[in-house]
Design a protein that fits this description.
This protein is an alpha+beta fold. The protein has a domain of about 100 residues: CAP (Pathogenesis-related Protein p14a), CATH 3.40.33. It contains five helices and five strands; from the N terminus they run E-H-E-H-H-E-H-H-E-E. Strands 1, 2, 3, 4 and 5 form a five-stranded mixed sheet that branches. Strand 4 and strand 5 form a beta hairpin. Helix 2 packs across helix 3 and helix 4 packs across helix 5. The N and C termini lie far apart (about 40 Å).
């Protein structure tokens, strides 16, 4: 099986109240070819921070360990052609960020599958109460984000956003 991975920003901290289903779809628009689906982490960070700023919340910074956790989980989802907050090894978001050397005070995760742009997956997260709650976590300070594609799968695109706040101890 062959994947193409595209790491992105965001530093995450745990799953929160998200359902184990893809983020809701936004209104249909022109479909991009899978080869045109990309993730620009800095653009994603700016879009998320703009959404948070409108609600008086602080900006998130990118964190490489959270990005690694997001990338690993997105690749795991793509490899299994599934969408879940539970890894194929039984791990949860907290375990995945810890495995990457991040000591979380807070960890949350949003996942999505099938969306053809970051704007589409972000809209789906905004429209989903559990995912939106994570986007608006007041204590989140960092993020990591990733996109992995698997052309031979049902969903083809697998997105993961990890939000976090490091432990002070």
């Amino acid at each position: 099986m062959k994947f193409r991975t595209v790491p992105v920003l965001l530093a995450v901290l745990a799953l929160g109240a998200c359902a184990e289903s893809p983020a809701g779809k936004s209104a249909p628009g022109p479909r991009l070819a899978l080869s045109q689906v990309t993730l620009e982490p800095e653009t994603a960070r700016r879009m998320i921070n703009g959404y948070r700023a409108k609600r008086g919340l602080p900006a998130l910074t990118m964190e490489k360990r959270l990005t690694r956790a997001a990338m690993q989980h997105a690749a795991d989802l793509a490899g299994g052609d599934r969408i879940s907050h539970t890894g194929s090894d039984g791990s949860d978001p907290w375990a995945r960020v810890r495995a990457n050397g991040y000591r979380p005070q807070l960890a949350a995760e949003n996942v999505g599958a099938g969306q053809r742009s970051f704007a589409e997956v972000l809209q789906g997260w905004k429209d989903s109460p559990g995912h939106n709650k994570n986007l608006l976590l007041a204590d989140a300070t960092q993020m990591g984000i990733a996109l992995v594609t698997n052309p031979g799968s049902r969903y083809q695109t697998f997105w993961a956003l990890v939000l976090g706040n490091p432990s002070r101890s």
